[in-house]
Write a structure and sequence with these properties.
The longest helix has 26 residues, at about 95-120. The protein has 15 helices and 15 strands. It has a domain at about 90-205: Arc Repressor Mutant, subunit A. It has about 400 residues and is an alpha+beta fold.
C-alpha cells in the first residue's frame, strides 16, 4: 500500500492563512468573498459576523457587511450546522438546508408541537398563530421586531411551561419558540436589527414558503457538496473535525467524504486527515501575519482538534465552559493570546506567549486598526472567557 501524503502543522497553518484571508495580500474587497471562503460565519453573537469579516477585508470596517446582509442580501443569517445560527452565502442556503437544517427543523417542530399540546395548544392553534405571524409581516409596510409582532399577534406573548417535572422547569414565551422555528424553516427571515450592528434584536420580514423536506438522495448530495466546500477551505482536517463542525453522524460524514472523493492523508503525529483529490500540492508559506479575531471566529472554531494552532496550556484562559473560544490574538497561524474592549473603548491585549519583537509590533498595529473599526461601539462577547473577563475587570 502506498504511503499516505503527509501534511505537517506548518503546511496546515499556511493553508489556513491563505484560504481564510488572513495572510498579507489575501484580504478581500467585499464581504461576500470572505463569507464564501469561510463557508459559514458564526452569528449567535451578532458582533462575530462583522468583526470576522472586517479582519479579512483590505479596507476593514462594518459598512460592507451591512450592505451584504441588509441591502444586497447576498449573505443570510440561517440556522445550520449544530442547530447554530450562521451567516452564509445566500447561494449556499439551499445546500445548508437540505444537508442539515431540514432534519433539525423536523425535530424542532415535533418538539414544539408536543410542548404546546402539553399546555393545551393543539396543532390547529399553532398553525393559526403561524398564519397570523406571516399575515402581520406581509401586511406591514416595514419589517417588525419581535415585540412589534407580539403586539400584532397577542398569542405570541402567551407562555408555556417547559421541562415540567424536571429541575430545569421554566416558562417560555410562545413567540420565542415559534419565531425561532419559523426562522429556521426560512418562512420568516432576520433583517437589520433594532439599534446598531452589535444588537441581536432583529427585525423580521416575510420569507419564501418553507421548502419541502429533501429526499434522501437530495440530502446526501447536499452533504457531499457542503463537505467539499468545507474541505476546500479547511482541509486537511480529520473526520472528527467534520463531525464536530456539521453535527452530522459519523456515517453521514464518511459517506460525504467518499462522495467528494476525499483523499486520506497523514497529519502531524500520525493522525488521519482528508483533503480534496486536487488539493495535495503544498502551498507557499505566507509572509508573517498578525490578526485580532472575535469570539466564535470561524477560523478558531471550525475544528474539534486545535492543538496545531491553540496550545492546550492556553485553553483554560481562552475557552468558556461550553467550549466557545473568546477573542483571540494570532501570530503566524497560532493563537498567542486574547483581547478585550474595556468600557472606555480601549482595546487591551494579553499575550500568553512572547512571540517576539516583530510580532508584538504587528499585533499592536492590528489592535489600532480594530480600535478604529469599533469606533463608538462597545463589544462584550455573548460567551465570556476567563481572559476576557480579567482584561475588562
Amino acid at each position: 500500500m502506498p504511503a499516505r501524503p503527509q501534511f505537517d502543522d506548518d503546511q496546515r497553518r499556511a493553508r489556513l492563512a491563505r484560504r481564510h484571508r488572513l495572510a498579507p495580500g489575501t484580504r478581500a474587497d467585499r464581504a461576500e468573498q470572505v463569507v464564501d471562503d469561510l463557508v459559514a460565519v458564526h452569528a449567535t453573537d451578532p458582533t462575530t459576523v462583522f468583526l470576522a469579516v472586517s479582519a479579512r477585508l483590505a479596507t476593514p470596517g462594518i459598512a460592507d457587511t451591512e450592505r451584504a446582509l441588509y441591502q444586497d442580501r447576498t449573505v443570510l443569517r440561517h440556522h445550520g450546522m449544530r442547530s447554530t445560527l450562521f451567516a452564509i452565502p445566500a447561494a449556499l442556503a439551499p445546500t445548508v438546508y437540505a444537508s442539515t437544517t431540514a432534519k433539525v427543523v423536523a425535530r424542532e417542530r415535533a418538539r414544539l408541537l408536543k410542548d404546546f399540546a402539553a399546555s393545551g395548544r393543539d396543532a390547529a392553534w399553532t398553525a393559526g398563530v403561524e398564519a397570523a405571524v406571516r399575515a402581520a409581516l406581509a401586511d406591514s409596510p416595514t419589517e417588525l421586531t419581535g415585540a412589534q409582532l407580539s403586539e400584532a399577534v397577542p398569542q405570541l406573548r402567551e407562555t408555556i411551561e417547559y421541562g415540567a417535572g424536571t429541575s430545569y422547569r421554566a416558562e417560555q414565551p410562545v413567540g420565542m419558540r415559534l419565531l425561532r422555528l419559523l426562522g429556521m424553516e426560512g418562512s420568516i427571515v432576520r433583517r437589520r436589527p433594532q439599534g446598531s450592528w452589535t444588537s441581536s434584536r432583529h427585525r423580521w420580514a416575510p420569507g419564501p414558503d418553507a421548502p419541502a423536506a429533501p429526499s434522501a438522495a437530495e440530502r446526501v448530495a447536499a452533504q457531499v457538496e457542503l463537505a467539499r466546500r468545507w474541505l476546500a477551505s479547511h482541509g486537511p482536517a480529520t473526520e472528527d473535525d467534520l463531525v464536530w463542525w456539521t453535527g452530522w453522524g459519523v456515517r453521514e460524514v464518511r459517506a460525504a467524504l467518499a462522495g467528494c472523493a476525499a483523499v486520506e492523508v497523514e497529519l502531524a503525529g500520525g493522525a488521519a486527515g482528508f483533503v480534496l483529490p486536487d488539493d495535495l500540492d503544498p502551498v507557499p508559506e505566507p509572509a508573517p501575519w498578525a490578526a485580532l479575531l472575535p469570539a466564535l471566529d470561524p477560523t478558531a472554531m471550525s475544528m474539534k482538534h486545535r492543538d496545531w494552532y491553540l496550545s492546550p496550556a492556553h485553553r483554560p484562559e481562552l475557552i468558556d465552559r461550553s467550549g466557545n473560544l473568546g477573542p483571540t490574538v494570532w501570530w503566524n497561524g497560532r493563537i498567542v493570546g486574547g483581547w478585550a474592549q474595556r468600557s472606555d473603548g480601549e482595546v487591551v491585549l494579553d499575550l500568553l506567549d512572547d512571540p517576539g519583537r516583530e510580532a508584538r509590533g504587528a499585533i499592536s498595529a492590528e489592535a489600532a486598526v480594530l480600535r478604529g473599526v469599533l469606533g463608538d461601539a462597545r463589544v462584550t462577547p455573548r460567551f465570556r472567557t476567563p481572559l476576557e473577563r480579567r482584561l475588562t475587570s
